[in-house]
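Changelog note: in this version the structure field was regenerated for every chain. One regenerated record is shown below for reference.
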Amino acid sequence: MLIEGVCATGGGFLRRACGAEPIGQCVYCGAPFCADHGEMGADYHQVCSRPHCRAKFDDVRAHRAWIDDRRHRNAAAMCAEDNCSDRMEHLCERCRLRFCSAHLKSGTVVERRADPSRQVKAAIIMCAHCTARRRLWD
């Protein structure tokens, strides 16, 4: 894959960006990065070393582990929340795990689109874990 430009990482107030030959393009911010300023992950998941992009990458990894850790509860028809003995009732529309009514909340979120004029408000049901993650992604 041909990546246009040079590594844009490292620049800041009165500092120049790295400028090295890029090896990837960040999936979060779209900036090119060199071998010193990014990571080439599995399935073409490329992320630069900027703190906000790194936080998103780490969040996705932790979120996947969190989901995998709770699947066994849903397999037994139990609420995915730790230490809850209730049966699963409803689906979290973000993580796709099932929870009892007490561990889900409804709310309104803005669904972002490539075209900002097409953004839509949507009512969804989410667990507390997914609700907390939204701060990083908004």
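Spot check on this record: The helical segments are 51-75, 128-137. The CA atoms of residues 100 and 120 lie 28 Å apart.
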